[in-house]
Design goal:
heterodimer, A: mainly alpha, 12 helices, 76% helix, 0% strand, B: mainly alpha, MetI-like fold, 69% helix
């Protein structure tokens, strides 16, 4: 078990290095000359291009060194929690400061959405499988398919118009994050949950149907168990293992969708930080966000694999 | 036994007189009877037609700013209202459809070709090369893809612009100075960079599993060459899954394009894109909800119809998955 975990963590390192190297190199070469940009904004714009100032900025940013040295330094600093400064934002804030302010909010939002999608999606999938090929089945599957196919940035404003503006069911959404258990969190979390709903419902349904056709289920029925007893005692437990895999695959989707949700609901989280960085071409912030989000996704997929091993004894982890 | 008592048998009843249904007849039969898939197909054809004839159908020029009609609610003159600088929303939606269709077609074709090449290359070469390709594809799929596309978009825009500018000084082609057109190119490039992973994975797994099947072995035993096997046996067998995947990845590409535009980094204004229209309308969602609803509902309908079309094609083309 311990060996498995260590192996998994070690196997993450190359992927992390490749992704950060890719984002760093592409970002540094592709996004234009940061020193030239700073010379234009920080120097006296009325003067002609200030070569001295430009050289000074280049030196400060370490842009005269070869790319692999810069990448090495950047990675070394990043591992020590220093991602550099965001030169594009007001006041040149430290990127690590921005991250510590924003990542917890987004993680809470994603967690809320993941819990919602589990407690809504799994029972719906079970229901659809139990009433296979009936009207209930079709309505459930097609309505979750509608909810998941509509893009997040369409669903969220429409939900906002209907629920907040027209029906006044929820308080109008203010700026920022009001905590995990506030009423303001319900709408963003539900819109985020809709992203993964179809995956969860579909997988639960298919996996339930597969287990329902097993021989031991027929045997349980033959012993005279009620359908309810068969489903709760014999089917659900065995059908839920694939669902956990799907929940693990849904997590990156949710994390990706926070970009839209946080912009629409104005939550100062990781997604908003990312989209602001993208809009302003703040390549250092975006590179740091890429590293952090990759790490989050990897840690999550490791956790899913471990849970998988715990609940299903057929899965041997110590390979 | 006395055979003479038996009535003479009509020979034609001994075998089926009607033509046997081929695989494709079966596919069309199943597809025709799936009303959701047919509805999706109808919407998609309508989208293509409106995109092709967008400039003929649009009541106004999509760039024309009528400063006497700023933020007008939907009316007979402007059936979907006007935006904050007096442009007709309906005309912009029609042109946005053209944008979406153009970008998505380029991305899908590029993705399918790259995926086909990478996937079959990996499957045929095998060994370390294959393992490395699988690793790259898995890495791509484990990361929030929209972020990767957005990152590539932002990171490569200045460079590609500079290339276009320096190319212009040599060639003097006017389109190289068109910022909107360059943003189209950047969007296609950045989404294409991440969108080939699905076809590559599908092609690889299909080729690997088909290669081991008995009928391929039989053809090989009969002396079929690699080309013959590929053309007559591998491609027809992969075609079904490929059609489904292309449909779904077309929808995906459209979603990515409007997502990037929604984030403010895809299609540059004044180019028309549904995502950008939603982005611009969101500040006025309380007073002028139609600015978000019109492009939003259009996008949602198109996405849904592509989803239904893909599902129906999947049902029709992959008989083994039916009722699953």
């Amino acid at each position: 078990m311990v060996r498995y975990v260590i192996n998994r963590i070690l196997s993450m390192i190359p992927l992390l290095i490749v992704i950060t190297a890719f984002t760093f190199v592409v970002g540094q070469y592709g996004s234009g000359d940061l020193a030239a940009y700073l010379t234009g904004t920080r120097g006296d714009p009325s003067k002609a291009f200030d070569t001295e100032l430009y050289k000074q900025f280049r030196k400060e940013l370490g842009m005269d060194e070869p790319i692999y040295v810069r990448y090495g330094k950047w990675l070394w600093n990043a591992l020590h929690g220093d991602f550099g400064k965001s030169y594009v934002m007001m006041g040149d804030p430290q990127i690590s400061y921005l991250l510590t302010k924003s990542v917890p909010q987004s993680l809470q939002l994603c967690l809320a959405a993941l819990v919602l999608v589990t407690i809504i999606g799994v029972p719906l999938g079970i229901l659809a499988a139990v009433f296979n090929n009936s009207l209930i089945d079709r309505v459930l599957v097609s309505s979750s398919s509608v909810l998941s196919s509509v893009p997040t940035f369409v669903l969220a404003p429409v939900a906002m118009i209907v629920v907040v503006v027209k029906l006044h069911l929820l308080p109008s959404v203010g700026v920022g994050w009001h905590g995990l258990f506030s009423r303001e969190t319900i709408l963003p979390a539900s819109c985020l949950a809709a992203v993964g709903l179809l995956n969860v419902v579909r997988t639960t349904r298919v996996s339930m149907l597969e287990v329902l056709s097993q021989e031991y289920v027929r045997a349980a029925r033959a012993r005279g168990l009620s359908e309810w007893g068969v489903v709760t005692n014999h089917v659900i437990r065995n059908a839920l293992t694939p669902v956990i895999t799907v929940l693990g695959m849904t997590a990156p989707l949710l994390l990706g969708a926070t970009v839209f949700i946080e912009q629409i609901f104005n939550i100062q989280g990781f997604g908003l930080m990312m989209s602001n960085g993208l809009q302003r071409g703040d390549i250092l912030t975006v590179t740091a966000s890429a590293l952090v989000s990759t790490a989050i996704v990897m840690i999550f997929s490791l956790a899913v694999d471990l849970v998988y091993g715990l609940i299903d004894p057929r899965v041997r982890l110590s390979k | 036994m006395d055979n003479s008592t038996l009535a003479p048998v009509d020979a034609s009843s001994m075998w089926r007189t009607e033509k046997a249904r081929s695989f494709w007849d079966d596919v069309f039969y199943h597809f025709r009877h799936n009303w959701m898939g047919m509805a999706g197909l109808v919407v998609f054809i309508l989208l293509c037609l409106t995109a092709i004839f967008a400039d003929k159908l649009a009541p106004y020029d999509y760039l024309n700013q009528d400063w006497n009609a700023i933020l007008k609610q939907p009316s007979a003159a402007h059936i979907m209202g006007t935006d904050d600088i007096g442009r007709d929303v309906f005309s912009r939606i029609l042109m946005g459809g053209r944008t979406a269709l153009m970008v998505a077609s380029c991305i899908t074709v590029a993705g399918a070709i790259i995926g086909l090449l990478v996937g079959s290359f990996g499957a045929f070469i095998g060994g370390k090369v294959d393992a490395a390709l699988v690793w790259v594809v898995d890495g791509l799929m484990s990361f929030p893809n929209i972020w990767l596309a957005a990152f590539i978009n932002v990171a490569t825009t200045p460079t590609l612009k500079a290339w276009a500018a320096s190319l212009y000084t040599v060639t003097h082609w006017g389109f190289l100075k068109d910022e909107v057109l360059i943003s189209y190119g950047v969007v296609v490039f950045s989404i294409g960079m991440v969108n080939w992973a699905w076809p590559a994975r599908l092609v690889r797994s299909q080729v690997l599993s088909l290669r081991e099947r008995e009928f391929v072995e039989a053809v090989r035993a009969l002396g079929g060459t690699a080309w013959w096997i590929t053309l007559r046996h591998l491609i027809p067998n992969v075609l079904g899954s490929m059609i489904v995947l292309v449909t779904l990845s077309f929808g995906n590409a459209m979603l990515f394009e409007s997502s990037l535009s929604f984030l403010g980094i895809g299609i540059r204004p004044p180019g028309a894109s549904w995502g950008a229209m939603i982005f611009q309308g969101i500040a006025r969602v309380r007073t002028h909800p139609y600015l978000v609803l019109a492009p939003g509902i259009t996008l949602a309908i198109v996405m849904l119809s592509l989803q239904f079309l893909g599902d129906a094609l999947n049902d029709a083309l992959n008989p083994r998955n039916r009722n699953a």
